[in-house]
ATP synthase gamma chain
Amino acid sequence: MASNLRELRERRNSVATTKKITRAMELIASSRIIKAQSAVKAASPYSLELTRALSAVAAHTHEDHPLTSINPDPKRSAVLVITSDRGLAGAYSSNAIRTAEELTTTLQPKQEIATYLCGRKAVQYFEFRGRKIDHLWSGFSDSPTYRDAKDIADRLIDDFLRPTEEGGVDEIHMVYTEFESMLTQTPKAIRLLPLAVVDPQDTSEGQLAEGDPGVETSAEAIFHEYRFEPDPVSVLDKLLPLYVANRVHYALLQSAASELASRQRAMKAATDNAEQLIQTLTRQANQARQAAITQEITEIVGGAAALAESARQE
C-alpha cells in the first residue's frame, strides 16, 4: 500500500510539472499570436494594391509573359508545403501535409511532382517515408520575414523559368494554412505560378488573382486609364517577382498565425487535461493514504486485543 501511495504521489508531481510547461507554452503562444495577427493585417493592404497593379498592367499587355503563360500540357509541377518547425501545435502540420498529399494525388497521374518543403515537420514526414525532397527551408515558421519569403520566391521563379528537361517545372502550387479565427485555421492549396489575372472585360465579382488575400472587388473598379513608363512589359517584369515574393510572404504570415493559434489551443487542452488528471491522482492518493491509515489502526487494535486476551488467559 505504501508503495502504491508513493507511485501515485510521484506521478502526480510529474503531471504537475508537465502542467507548468504546457501552461507556460499556452501563455507564450497567446502573447505572440497578437503580433502575428497584426502582421497579417498589416500585410493585407500592400498585397491587395500590388495585385491591383499587377492585374492592371497585365490587362494592358498583349505579350505573353513567362510567369503568366499557362502550359496546356504540364509535365512537371512543384508543390510548396508550409508547416511548422516545432510540434505541440495540434493538427496544424498534419492538416497541411494531408492537403498537400491530396493535391499530389490529383496532379500525379498526369505529371511528375517536385516537392518543396518549408518547416521541419514536413521534412520529417517526407524523410521518414524515404521520399525525395527537391528543396527545403526551415527555422522561421513562427516568425517569418520578407527575406525568408524572397529566398523561397527566387528559387521558385528560377525553377519555373527553367525548362523541364533541365529540372524546371511548368506549374507551382502552394499549400499553407489560412488563419480565419482563433478556433478555425483552414489549410488551402493554390496555384502560385503561372499567375491567373483578371480579364478586364469580365465585370463579374471575384478574386483579383488566384490565391490573393481574399479581398473581393469588381474588375471595373480596378482597371482605369494607366500610363506605364517605360512600357507595360518592363513594368510587368518588375512587378511579377515582387508579387510572387509577396504571395509567399503573406502565406508564411498566415501560417505563422495559424500555428500559434493551434498551439495555444492544444496547450490549453493539455493544461486542462493535466489539471483533471492531477485531481484524479490526488483523490486516488488520498484514498490510498486513508486505506493505509485504516489498515494500521486495524492492526493496532487487533494487536491490543490479542495482548488483552493473552493477559486474561494467564
Notes: The domain at 32-198+209-215+239-263 is CATH 3.40.1380.10 (Pyruvate Kinase; Chain: A, domain 1). The radius of gyration is 30 Å. Residues 5 and 286 are 8 Å apart (CA to CA).
